[in-house]
Design brief:
Elements: E1 5-6, H1 9-12, E2 21-24, H2 34-43, E3 48-51, H3 61-67, E4 71-76, H4 87-92, E5 97-100, H5 103-115, E6 119-122, E7 136-139, E8 142-148, E9 152-158, E10 161-163, E11 168-169, H6 178-184, E12 185-192, E13 194-196, E14 215-218, H7 225-230
Parallel strand pairs: 1-14, 2-3, 2-9, 3-4, 4-5, 9-12, 10-13, 12-14
Antiparallel strand pairs: 6-8, 7-8, 10-11
Helix pairs in contact: 2-3, 5-6
Length: about 240
């Protein structure tokens, strides 16, 4: 399908199934796809594995998905931040499990998955509890542990703009996890503030080529996570 634009976030996530692994972009609200996540909450899929840099803030977006009881496992680097009010209790009660991954390792595991690389060696986490049970090896006298590439059934990504072919540009730190997640997921879903016709974006500034994007949905005025959290908003 050449035209990848869909009419709404609800349509974009309609086929997410129970038990799916979903990558969620972020690195701050510049890349947090709030509208796609809220549409997923409304859609009802459960027993999800979420791959993300953190576990969300307040009770909106990713945190709201967790609060709704839809997530059985989280793979992330920062499960608790200043506004992480939901995940700590879910973890302590055993309702959600955690796979903690150093941030650089998480980024590389996603990139490797998207590049078709099944595993790689890294010195990160050597000598810590995160290395327990993992294969280790020495290279040039230094210890490394084996980490596996990550892939997903779906990726929910927030970009700045896209054309109908799925070529995407990002806003600042959204570029950290969005591009590799688009490559690592079987179905990459991108919400953007504006969708333009092919040729409407300078090819020289495109970050994620359309070959890695399956669906695009325009959210002209996306909400800002920090503003929702400050206002005490909850979803639904």
């Amino acid at each position: 399908m050449i035209n990848k634009q869909l009419s709404s976030p609800a349509e974009a996530v309609a086929d997410v199934f129970d038990g799916a692994t979903i990558m969620v972009s972020g690195f701050g609200e510049a890349g947090s796809p709030i509208e796609l996540i809220h549409a997923l909450i409304d859609q009802g899929a459960t027993d999800l594995t979420i791959v993300s840099n953190n576990t969300g803030s307040g009770e909106v977006g990713l945190a709201a998905l967790l609060k709704a009881g839809r997530v059985s496992k989280v793979i992330c680097s920062f499960p608790r931040t200043a506004n992480s009010t939901v995940f700590p209790e879910l973890y302590r009660s055993g309702k959600t499990t955690l796979e903690l991954v150093p941030q650089g390792t998480l980024a590389e595991r996603i990139r490797a998955g998207g590049a078709g690389i099944p595993a790689f060696y890294t010195p990160a986490a050597v000598g810590t509890p995160l290395a327990e049970g993992k294969e280790s090896r020495q290279f040039d006298g230094r210890d490394y542990i084996l980490e596996h590439g990550l892939t997903a059934d779906f990726a929910l990504i927030k970009g700045k703009a896209a054309d109908t072919y799925g070529n995407v540009i990002y806003n600042k730190t959204a570029r950290n996890f969005g591009p590799p997640m688009a490559m690592a997921a079987k179905n990459s879903i991108v919400q953007v503030s504006s969708v333009v016709e092919p040729g409407g974006i300078d090819p020289e500034i495109i970050v994620t080529p359309g070959i890695f994007v399956d669906r695009v949905v325009e959210v002209a005025n996306p909400v800002h996570e920090s503003e929702l959290v400050s206002a005490g908003v909850t979803y639904p």
